[in-house]
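re: ur question from earlier - yeah i can do the single chain one, its not a big deal. heres the input i used so u can compare w yours
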Amino acid sequence: MAQDGPILQVEHLTLSFGGITALNDVSFAVPSDSITTLIGPNGAGKTSLFNTISGFYHPQQGRIHFQGQDITSVPAPNRAKLGLARSFQNIALFRGMSVLDNIKLGRHCHLRTNLLQDMWYLGAARREEMALRADIETRIIDFLEIDHIRHASVAALPYGLQKRVEMARALAMQPKLLLLDEPVAGMNREETEDMARFILDVRAEWGVTVLMVEHDMGLVMDLSDHVVVLNFGHVIASGDPSHVQADPQVIQAYLGAGNVSDLRRRLRGQATPAPAAIEEA
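and the output i got, formated as tokens:
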């Protein structure tokens, strides 16, 4: 159950690139302890919104509040220190490094030792490194069930495991809000079910609020407490899954003049029935 008050508040965001407006007066809130999902057709502005929230883009107008603090002008690394972590639509791991080393990089924003201590691996740096490794190995690696690949090179891993390692690196940042950009894109059914379980567990067991972008409508409707729908840079609907999937503007955005029953089946994660066979005369 979500706590009172949002962990993230987006107010009237506008983001333009030249003559193209990616976000236009976007406002919504992410309730604490919730799984909130951004959906919308391709080109709706979802990734641009993620990049703005995480600090990669700076909006021309609007404000972003995280845990009551205005972070609109806070640089991306400082947002990470505050407890905002993310994964990427296109995997952004260091392919020449091991799984363990990639995950450890996620904690870099919280390290307290200075450059000299790190260079000579002095007492404080060594203690910090040992504590970091213990936490990662006993919590994150076990949680995501990747102990068997901890020393493997990321480049040698299948796609589904790379996505899991990227989530592990984000969790190593000790987030209060975890942004997942298409966490199950390109995965098979078994991998999708595993990732769905991890997303539910990270909220339930770790107390981390989740904001994700996802196109798998069955997953969205099964996991989400709250859904926000974007279309052409505007928020056109917001609410619980049952409310959103029945909204006429959402149906119009996804299908235009298409078959409403097909869309509703897609939003519920149901297969579209095959056309009936033509009976022989």
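The beta strands are 6-17, 20-31, 35-39, 61-66, 69-70, 84-86, 177-181, 209-213, 226-231, 234-239. not sure if urs matches, ping me
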